Fold:
Amino acid sequence: MKILHLFSNWKWTGPADPTLNLCKELERRGHDVMFAYRKPPFPVEESIEKRVLQAGVKATDRFRLNHSVKVYHPSFLPTHLKDIMDLTDYLREERFDLLNVHHSHGHLIGGIAVRRSGHPAILIRTDHKREPLKPSLGNRFLISQFTDGLITFSERARREDAEHFGLPLERVGKISPALDLKRYHPRREFKDMRAFFGIKSDEIVIGMIARYQKYRRTDVFLKAVKIIVREFPNIKVLLVGRSSQIEQSVIQPIQQFGIERWVVLGGYQTNDYLDTLACMDIFVFLMAGSDGTARALREAMAMGKPVIVANRGMLPELVEDGISGLVVNDTPEELANAALLLLRHPEVRETLGRSAYEKAHQDFQLERQAEAVERFYQEMIRLGKRR
Structure:
């Protein structure tokens, strides 16, 4: 198959990594794959462009793909019209079998370009959001006019999207995002990040990785920490990540609950990210970010960490309660009880961590994801354009 992935962003966000890995694996499986992305508008340290060059994926930055241009901005029409015309020509020249779009912006210009090109490429939308697509006027238009198939990563989203948009279930695929599992092995050699963060060797580390926006409910977890340390003070809570809302969502609750001595702010880690994850003994995840892939949770499981997750959204689909982790209601009391269970019983930590590792290395295989996507693509081509 000849496949074009249209990714309307230059930032290295949660959906970018699995999409890039998928393109690389599909190419390895013999498909002709092109990854189209937006070039950074200014010099940056981290970007999709940088990762594309490192991965050696066949890619193009010939389109502007500027999803942030506002309707009222003078460049709105010229920018998008040029992309539509350029993409139309490109589809005519290259005659792709499939166009896979990943954002509403790419969905719109891609859908129009497919229509204008006169070439019957199948258009697939991959939904990376935490919740099922909202049945808004804009989404209804995109799905009804320009969509032959939809890929999501939870069974709940699959069924709700089919119902909301009148899509036959066979045109909605539930496919779990993958990890490059060769990177995640708990027994490889890691840097001593405990020493870097000033954590003693005998302290048990409860970790969390997130963008600390208020909706991520970090304050609820920090209230649970106040309960935990009354019985089990020999811990450190390592919070890795950043956010413009960190003052309200993290710093103020730490001060309010009087738990400063137990919390370490690890900041944003890039080069030492896996080393930082490796130094955690327990991993807590309460809510997926806006992209919804729960990537940090998947990575913690792949590293063999025992996890505690909230009974929210698709998290119970990833973690089997009592088998590959603990699934609880995210109240301070239930979170504290789950953490104390793992703190009191190291053998339970070991068992859950081993099961999490096995589940991750089975369910999050890149080959497995690519095979599922490949089958879905082939089925959409067989079904043909949706009328």
Notes: Residues 305 and 319 are 12 Å apart (CA to CA). The two ends are 22 Å apart (CA to CA). The longest helix spans residues 76-94. The chain has two domains: 2-177+366-383, 182-363.
